[in-house]
TrEMBL record:
<keyword id="KW-0805">Transcription regulation</keyword>
<dbReference type="GO" id="GO:0005524">
    <property type="term" value="F:ATP binding"/>
</dbReference>
<dbReference type="InterPro" id="IPR011006">
    <property type="entry name" value="CheY-like_superfamily"/>
</dbReference>
<dbReference type="InterPro" id="IPR025943">
    <property type="entry name" value="Sigma_54_int_dom_ATP-bd_2"/>
</dbReference>
<dbReference type="InterPro" id="IPR027417">
    <property type="entry name" value="P-loop_NTPase"/>
</dbReference>
<dbReference type="InterPro" id="IPR001789">
    <property type="entry name" value="Sig_transdc_resp-reg_receiver"/>
</dbReference>
<keyword id="KW-0067">ATP-binding</keyword>
<dbReference type="Pfam" id="PF02954">
    <property type="entry name" value="HTH_8"/>
</dbReference>
<dbReference type="InterPro" id="IPR025944">
    <property type="entry name" value="Sigma_54_int_dom_CS"/>
</dbReference>
<keyword id="KW-0597">Phosphoprotein</keyword>
<dbReference type="GO" id="GO:0043565">
    <property type="term" value="F:sequence-specific DNA binding"/>
</dbReference>
<dbReference type="Pfam" id="PF00158">
    <property type="entry name" value="Sigma54_activat"/>
</dbReference>
<dbReference type="InterPro" id="IPR003593">
    <property type="entry name" value="AAA+_ATPase"/>
</dbReference>
<keyword id="KW-0547">Nucleotide-binding</keyword>
<dbReference type="GO" id="GO:0000160">
    <property type="term" value="P:phosphorelay signal transduction system"/>
</dbReference>
<dbReference type="Pfam" id="PF00072">
    <property type="entry name" value="Response_reg"/>
</dbReference>
<protein>
    <submittedName>
        <fullName>Response regulator of zinc sigma-54-dependent two-component system</fullName>
    </submittedName>
</protein>
Amino acid sequence: MRVLVVDDERNIRHTLRVCLEGFGCEVREAATPDAALAALAQGPVDLAFVDLRLGTASGLELLPKLLAESPHLDVVLITAYATFDTAVEAMRRGARDYLPKPFTPAQIRHVVDRARRHRELASQLEDLEGQLSQAVPEATLETASPAMHAAIGLLTRAATSDAAVLLRGESGTGKGVLARALHSMSARRRRPFVTVNCPTLSEQLLASELFGHVRGAFTGAVKDQPGRVEAAEGGTLFLDEIAEMSPGLQAQLLRFLQEKQFERLGEGRTRKSDVRVVAATNRDLEKDVAEGRFREDLLYRLNVIEVKLPSLRERPEDLLALALRFVAFFSRAAQRPPPELSPATEKMLLAYGWPGNVRELRNAMERALIVWPAAVLEPQAFPDRIAAAGGPGMALGGPHSLEDIEREHVLRVMASAPTLDEAARVLGIDASTLWRKRKKYESGEG
């Protein structure tokens, strides 16, 4: 790592240099704020140790100037005058850590290792974003939404631990995507990521799915079968829609979380497992606890780190960018140039409430690409419930050319008809004529 040491005491700078170089770091030194900014201008720096008192200058005043020049710099404030208020102020101004003097080589190494791990996580997050965006269009971790940015930041910090994580949010907000991202950023990333969808099975079958069974445990159990807990050994077990789990199975899961032990159905042998549990829900679990549908002790075990995902209507900054990502993705799949969004379509997308969140947006954009062959997506390419949010469309008698009216009418009929032949029948023209019109609209000529 490239490290900058800013301290007005030569002995401190020398001691830190020797220590840091022993850990394989490249070190630059500065005794004053101006020298620190000059050293930063020489090239990128990963980590900076900054003394609180730099002669008559203040390290706290220098801190935002360093971050303005290098926003991704990890800054550690060092001082012999450590107070709680100073630590809080340092963090408020952007410091990542705080180290009181005198410090030991072990403490320095801990800070360096933590900074290095933070860099690795940031790099992994960037790589993951690229991989996911190619495979799953909604799996983007790039966001302009403060609420979503906060959720991803908390998720990144959670990746450094094995604590249980509870993802909360409405259906379609991307809880499964973030669960997989958490696994990919964690130390368990080379081990399995296993999903269990809790609402899809009866209590007995879900217990078997989770913990496995032995032959004869129930009707149809013709052989021993390991469960998802064993399949996820060393990795991450994702329990989707955990609120749907029955009370009896909640008790079994609680014991597993407490003791890391379980038994297969029909077997007396106790087994151990090392998995990280991530759960997700779209329900108010506290209300379920109050009404006796969910165990309070299980909620505490699952909710060590809570990450709340905002709904799509709470992140309007991301909506059009997501829509364009879907357009590009599905256009590649259809091997056609990606169409543009008309101003009316953008207005409509922003006005609609999106109760199904990102999943609904994805489906709407995929449908629009299928039914609307023109080079510009208009509101009429979308289902009526969405199109209505944009207000009335093109009205007869308005300031529109005959060509524009014909184009919109033809596209609307094609969007509602099950086949091209049926659309041609409704329009009263040959299918070949309609096919030529469609090609014309796809090329953007009309």
